[in-house]
From TrEMBL:
<dbReference type="InterPro" id="IPR045584">
    <property type="entry name" value="Pilin-like"/>
</dbReference>
<dbReference type="InterPro" id="IPR012902">
    <property type="entry name" value="N_methyl_site"/>
</dbReference>
<protein>
    <submittedName>
        <fullName>Prepilin-type N-terminal cleavage/methylation domain-containing protein</fullName>
    </submittedName>
</protein>
<dbReference type="Pfam" id="PF07963">
    <property type="entry name" value="N_methyl"/>
</dbReference>
Length: 151
């Protein structure tokens, strides 16, 4: 047999094997990439809530006027001052502990920052599956401390 007469290319068997391997890789990596995407959204949500708290404190100190941060665990939203509403993904859980006097109803929690940087204080727990991050707002200085909640 001469090599010059053979057609160049892949055989049907080679193509089937390559497509089978690609299909297996896609089937295995699909769920893993979705979990990775949710994990990324969770970390971003923690950063966004912390950023909202820090921004509200800064705004109160600059203007000298109180600024409220309103957290709604049921709606999974965070709102402060005239800033846009921060909506968290559906799979994220929120728990709050704040001063009851500032809340209009049981569905919202309010942390108020004052012009000197102090606040009413409070705790926001942000969870996904069995992993929880705690954002604790100190009342004296209004600073936010982040920690992992041990199961």
């Amino acid at each position: 047999m001469r090599d010059g007469n053979r057609a160049l290319g892949f055989t049907l068997l080679e193509l089937l094997i390559a497509l089978s391997i690609a299909g297996l890789l896609l089937a295995v990596s699909g769920p893993a990439s979705y979990k990775m995407y949710q994990s990324m959204q969770y970390r971003e949500a923690v950063r966004d809530v912390r950023r909202a708290l820090d921004s509200a404190r800064y705004s109160a100190m600059v203007t000298g006027k109180p600024v409220n941060v309103v957290i709604s665990p049921r709606d999974k939203t965070v709102l402060y001052s005239d800033k846009p509403l921060l909506e968290l993904p559906e799979f994220i859980d929120l728990e709050t502990e704040t001063a009851a006097e500032l809340s209009e109803d049981d569905t919202q929690a309010v942390i108020q920052y004052y012009g000197d940087g102090s606040s009413t204080g409070g705790t926001i727990n942000i969870g996904r599956n069995d992993r929880w991050i705690r954002l604790h707002v100190g009342w004296l200085l209004g600073k936010v401390e982040q920690s992992v909640v041990e199961p």
